[in-house]
Design a protein that fits this description.
Structural class: mainly alpha
Distance between the termini: 20 Å
Largest sheet: none
GO cellular component, one term: membrane
Number of strands: 0
Keywords: Membrane, Transmembrane, Transmembrane helix
Number of helices: 8
Shape: globular
């Protein structure tokens, strides 16, 4: 109770109400946008779905590149390298400071990006297996070419998407995490490099190698991934990023009310 009273004394009622209204309004608007029925691309006007994560490409989009000349193995290598590099930087960050550093929004976003690349690497490994099998099968046919391989892959992927299963739901989760990372990584790096570094650089704050890596590796690997992958990014899905940020704010409020400091 003492901690709660201290918080209330430092904030006037109108400030508390304003902050609560902003967060509550953002959560409500995001949930409304997510749950509103939408029509998948190419479907009839009556074909509305509520599960907006289902709108878009099938599971093949999780491991195929938007560049026809880039094989799934290259995307797998890029994603696996991102997992190793980002995990190493996060471990370096925790060892340089302490585990309380994990309470910051940047580290939350960094961990979420690692989760994305882990899932993406799993899909890429699966894609390499599918691609290798079909490439071997098609090349055994007379006068085989890339069009036969492409058609064979499309038929297999369409059948897998129709069956659904855990892979399809994991693919939807991967898309959501990708879209959350897209917003949160840009937010953290813009604030850090455009506001904190130029205007708050002092004896109490100075750049070091860990900070530079934390606020550059995340964006670099995400830009490489965005360039190579074939995932769609409908702008209304930025609502997942809003929900992620609001969830962080709420958890921070609860932590401060409970007397936790870092």
């Amino acid at each position: 109770m003492a901690a709660l009273n201290d918080v209330l004394l430092r904030w006037s009622p109108w400030q508390l109400l304003l902050c609560f209204a902003i967060v509550a309004g953002s959560v409500a608007a995001s949930l409304w946008a997510i749950l509103s029925p939408r029509r998948p691309p190419g479907a009839s006007a009556s074909a509305l779905v509520v599960d907006v994560a289902a709108i878009g490409s099938g599971t093949s989009a999780m491991w195929r590149s938007s560049w026809s000349g880039v094989r799934p193995a290259w995307l797998l290598a890029s994603r696996a390298a991102a997992v190793v590099a980002l995990a190493g930087v996060l471990l370096w960050d925790a060892l340089t400071y302490d585990l309380t550093i994990m309470m910051y929004y940047t580290e939350w976003t960094f961990m979420l990006e690692i989760v994305y690349f882990v899932i993406a690497t799993m899909f890429s490994a699966y894609g390499c297996f599918i691609y290798s099998n079909h490439h071997h099968r098609v090349t055994m046919l007379p006068e085989s070419d890339e069009s036969l391989l492409s058609n064979s892959l499309m038929e297999t992927n369409h059948g897998a998407d129709q069956k659904g299963g855990a892979g399809l739901y994991l693919g939807r989760l991967m898309q959501i995490v990708y879209q959350v990372c897209g917003g949160s990584v840009v937010l953290t790096d813009v604030i850090f490099w455009a506001l904190i570094v130029p205007f708050m650089y002092s004896a109490h704050f100075s750049l070091n190698a860990v900070m530079v890596c934390i606020h550059s590796f995340n964006l670099v690997f995400l830009l490489i991934e965005t360039t190579l992958n074939s995932l769609e990014f409908p702008w209304f899905r930025m609502t997942y990023f809003v929900l992620w940020t609001c969830s962080y704010v709420i958890i921070q409020w609860v932590a401060h009310v409970c007397g936790l400091t870092w």
